[in-house]
Riboflavin biosynthesis protein RibD (Pelagimonas phthalicica), 367 residues
Amino acid sequence: MIDEDQRHMAHALSLGRRGMGKCWPNPSVGCVIVKDGRIVGRGVTAPGGRPHAEPQALAMAGPLAKGAMAYVTLEPCSHYGKTPPCCDALIEAGVARVVAALADSDPRVSGQGFERLRQNGVEVTTGILAQEAMHDLAGFFLKVEQGRPWVTLKLAMSLDGRIATATGESQWITGPAARRAVHALRNSHDAVMVGGGTARADNPALTVRDMGAVQQPVRVVVSRRLDMPLMSNLAQTAKEVPVWLCHGPDLRPETRDAWTGLGAKLFPCHLSQGRVDPHSVLQALGQAGLTRVFCEGGGQLAASLLVADLVDELQVFSAGMALGAEGQPGLGALGVDRLADAPRFELVDVTVDGRDVRHVWRRNAAI
């Protein structure tokens, strides 16, 4: 039974991963309904967060849900929101057993969904592939418990840690396969974030491309004074794909009015040492509902997040070229005088993307 439970939960987790970046502020949950060893229903949290995975899987299963087992990556909700509780839907469908990877840390749900199921005669098993589920849902838990989203920092650098030549040329240090991997990472996050310097220098679109018709992530720029061109790609497409701007409290009214007129959403944030405070930025983004943010630099924003201990995962793409000391460094100053004070991460994966090598590092490899 344990092996079967793990196999079906792995399937449910794979379903949940398909919804990453699409259903914030809700978590992307996967659900599989199994009857007599056969899968009769599958569901994943819909774009925008509703409907939840369980009612979709139950609808597919129909009458076959009676006496079946439901594998869910997160505890079924037990409260009335914009939709009825998922645990009630499971009970009414006659599901005999619910297998869940994790309990929900949301105080409206935590443990109550499991308790209601048990009180209505449904067998409940928890903790199946819990570590894998914890990583997949870490952004949702961070938002609930700390008020901020999960942060993935991407660095695409030469072998000697440079992101551009001394003249600023950076396209392209990494190859096509690595760039496609970056678009896949954008697609699995709620938002893509850059600093004002990168927005000015690169004039990026920050959209997911060459992956078919997808729901585009929110595009976030962190800039104290929002001194970016109003004819930039971001400014001119703000009404088509969301642009959120995190700025300082001293923003000029005419700048605010210009960006809001273009369709951007503005978030005033606190300052720290003359720069927009990264804690304030992430709290604002978490309050707005984001659970997963993909940061693509530049060096100063990346450094500020690292110094503040707000980077949960590093995705580092290393290219087989060297640019020398005159090249632009991938990270701004960190103020590290002793090795003991340097930000440290644990290596969790190494892959080859075309001609480049990707290293994945996490603050906590168990998540």
Q: What stands out?
A: The chain has two domains: 2-136, 146-362. The CA atoms of residues 256 and 348 lie 42 Å apart. The radius of gyration is 22 Å. The chain has a mean pLDDT of 93.
